Amino acid sequence: MPFVRRAIALWREIEAESGTRLFHQTGVFYAGDARSEFLSSSMASAAVYDVGLQILDKRSEVTCGLRVPADWTAFVELEGGFVEAERAITAFVEVAKRAGARLLTGTKVAAIVPHASGVEIRAGGETIHVEKVVVAAGAWTGELVPELRPHLAIERRVLHWFADPTGACALSAGFKPFIVEAGDGIEFYGFPSIDGRGVKAGEHDLRVGGASHVDAADALDRAVGVDEVARIAQMVRRFLPGLEGPTSSAVCMYPMSKDSDFILDRLSERVIVGAGLSGHGFKFAPAMGEALAALALGRAPTLDLSYLSLKRFG
Ligand SMILES: Cc1cc2nc3c(=O)[nH]c(=O)nc-3n(C[C@H](O)[C@H](O)[C@H](O)COP(=O)(O)OP(=O)(O)OC[C@H]3O[C@@H](n4cnc5c(N)ncnc54)[C@H](O)[C@@H]3O)c2cc1C
Description:
Number of helices: 6
Distance between the termini: 25 Å
Bound molecules: flavin-adenine dinucleotide
Structural class: alpha+beta
Number of strands: 17
Largest sheet: 9 strands, mixed
Radius of gyration: 21 Å
Strand content: 25-35%
Helix content: 10-25%
């Protein structure tokens, strides 16, 4: 929770710096069977950190016709919300450029070679000499930093967009991001439709191995299977029957750490890593950036990062 709150404060800072609205503090709707461990641990954590919860005991209070059984637990976590990811990336890039960053887009880093007096980055036929390097290469991290491979796994995941013909699931209609514990440790989640783009929905599944395991990021199968579409469509029919589709789908990757928590650490004096974001890293991006910058600059981090260090894996 301290990391979440720090991220929210920093989203507000980057909004002010970039003049762009990025974080919508709408609250997040949670629902699940009353015995759901996920819900009880979310409620316990809210109690520890004094996060406001609005317990919903009348299903009529649920927005957008999101249907959950009357005997389920349902609440709105009031501090939560969502970030507009594409706008956030544009804002980060603009602010970084203004601060003097040099961006090499469409350029593959072939190797990172630390030595006694610095680090060589070989990219696009050029060798760049720097004092320190922060590696945040998502599912490709293991290729650039092989030492991390034993701690990481790559899992294939699919995201879908559904049409909202009545507009009831629009941000402007008050629809909130939602997380529904759908059983088997899988959370069905989604975000409100913005500018008529439709509701983004998927299954947050932290399991590792099996059919969704990916050996190497570039070997990812990006074709969406008929069974994958049928599965999410069934989930949407069950919980959000007013939606239609999916109208489109996209395949992406969860770079998983062994405990599904992030790895923010110094691999050596000169190489700092932000890895294993395990499918839930985006919302923390500015807090993670701040933490990685502190590690690179040898400054005391704003928050305790010890639980995110590599030491926890022994
Ligand atoms: C389906 C899905 C749903 C998600 N939903 C959420 C959510 O609801 N909330 C949330 O907080 N997070 C969510 N996430 C997770 C979030 O998107 C990631 O945690 C976050 O984007 C990770 O950022 P990153 O910069 O570490 O990695 P990435 O976004 O993967 O970026 C890594 C970048 O490094 C580049 N790169 C890699 N290797 C090289 C190289 N050799 N040379 C040059 N460039 C290189 C890649 O091209 C890429 O652009 C979701 C992820 C998925 C897949």
